[in-house]
Design a protein that fits this description.
Blueprint: E1 16-17, H1 19-39, E2 46-53, E3 60-63, E4 69-71, H2 73-89, E5 97-106, H3 109-121, E6 132-136, H4 139-153, E7 160-164, H5 174-183, E8 187-193, H6 195-201, H7 206-215, H8 226-232, H9 236-252, E9 256-264, E10 267-276, H10 279-291, E11 296-298, H11 318-321, E12 328-329, H12 332-351, E13 357-358, H13 359-366, H14 374-386, E14 390-393, E15 411-414
Parallel strand pairs: 1-3, 2-5, 2-7, 5-6, 7-8
Antiparallel strand pairs: 3-4, 8-10, 9-10, 9-11, 11-12, 13-15, 14-15
Length: 423
Amino acid sequence: MTRAPYQWGSGHQLAVIKQHSIAKHEVLRAYLLEYFQTLVRPQQDELRLTLVDGFAGGGIYRHENTGEVVLGSPFVLIDAASEAEKLINRDRQKPLRLNVDYFFVDVKQDALNLLDQTLREKGHADRVGRDIRLLRGKFEAVSASIKTSVRSKNPVNGRSLFFLDQYGYKEVPAPLIRSIFAELPAAEVILTFNVDAFITYASDTPLTAGLLQQIGIPDVLQGRSIEDIKRNERDFRLYIQSCLYRGLVEACGARFYTVFFIRTEGHGDYWLVHLSQHPRARDVMTRVHWAQSNNFIHYGGAGIDMFGALGYSADRDASLSGQSSFGFCFDDPAGQASVSALMEQLPRVIHARPEGMSFGELFAATCNTSPADSMKFKEALAKLVAHKEIEITSVDGARRHSSNTITDKDQLTPTRQGIFTFF
């Protein structure tokens, strides 16, 4: 039902890594570079945080196509921190130090042995056991001790990022992620979830019910049977995806999230889920998705109702809408479609608040259900200003007309004599 775990050990050749896993690591690296820079304040001289790889593996692979040696996620974390520190200090008079602890977890001792060997070969021998710690066991079993360490390093907010690349969909229960956010307010989680595998093998059996209970979303199908969904929903996979998506993020307890497919062979077969408690973190990850447009896809709408109503919707029917059955790719046409959809949908949100709302409030209230990043929101809003649908005013009373001048505190209000062409 899930992808097979990698095989490690001195008697094996290097495990083979597929291109879509490399793409996932590229996204992780790109996000970390932005993540570090976003956290830094101008006068800060040290940034303390913890990076956790809950399924670290052996740290070294052979590329499935080229046969080249490829380093795994532990080295993505370490190298991204080193690169970010250089970028941050490039123009600073007073250098900033990244004070980072790493936890690399795996259930297999063979994997940790290989990771330990590779870390030493790559020049990190003096760090193993100090700021780099290798833990054997299931992530769920060792998570409590990791959270204690994070709180010790950052008592106030528990600044940390957990990369949880599970082998399927049940090794990181939603209540465990909820506990991370409850105990570590500034934590972020990047989770993989093999949704296609779940849907393919889901059935009306105690096994599926038990899996949903184990994941922590037992009522996610709202009492409906798999047979009923397959018989009555025109796109039953989309229906189940929507149920899982909503149930999972709600059960995890994150205020902000992205849920997009990583593409494999032209289709996505599993989610890369980013969970956080701040809209800025969500926006950074969404920008990374757009920058990595060849690797991500989603099957929902372009505006602020990404997955839409559960079940079939005519605007997702390729025969009626002309939209590719491969879904929404993060390319230029998709960007234009997002801006157009936001222009149609955002006035309804703004006109529902005639007293006004800030851009920060608007984005926080709608970003979770949109594939758009903040710049696309701002582009749509600037066009609505040009169409005299809305007005945007800064805290000092200046009128905003350009997308690149809009800030979180700017107030959005309906125009007094708007034409309302987008209703």
